[in-house]
Specification:
The chain has 129 residues and is mainly alpha-helical. Helices cover 71% and strands 9% of the residues.
């Protein structure tokens, strides 16, 4: 078992860990040290045990908040997966297209016919001039 020197709140500790786990230990110590640095800067004469306890509690609080967010995210992902599956199983959806009333179609045809007649009249006058 390798021994690793870590620093938390400007205090050094020698900690044993499993072979190959050194980088995890150092990363965890760095997170704990970040929390301890806040405490050490705010409270003078902080005992080692109190610093470690408070730092651990602050880190645990952050972890609990992240766990809550993960649970909410997992629930949302599960909801979306159910919606996707329901949509896949629903098959083709019927889409209704609005029908243009016959009166509108007739009116548009009449306007088009008048426009064409006017255009023909203008063309005849231009040819005559």
């Amino acid at each position: 078992m390798p021994d690793v020197m870590i620093t938390i709140g400007s205090r050094s500790f020698e900690v044993a860990c499993q072979e190959g786990e050194e980088h995890f230990l150092k990363a965890a110590a760095a997170m704990l040290d970040t929390e301890a640095a806040v405490l050490v800067s705010q409270i003078s004469n902080l005992t080692e045990s109190r610093m470690l306890l408070m730092s651990g509690l602050m880190l645990a609080d952050k972890t609990a908040g992240m766990e809550d967010k993960v649970k909410l995210t997992e629930r949302r992902v599960a909801e979306l997966e159910r919606e996707i599956e329901a949509l896949k199983n629903a098959g083709p959806q019927k889409v209704e297209v609005p029908v243009v009333p016959a009166s509108v179609t007739d009116t548009l045809a009449e306007i088009a016919a008048r426009t064409e007649a006017m255009a023909a009249s203008v063309e005849e006058r231009l040819k005559a001039d």
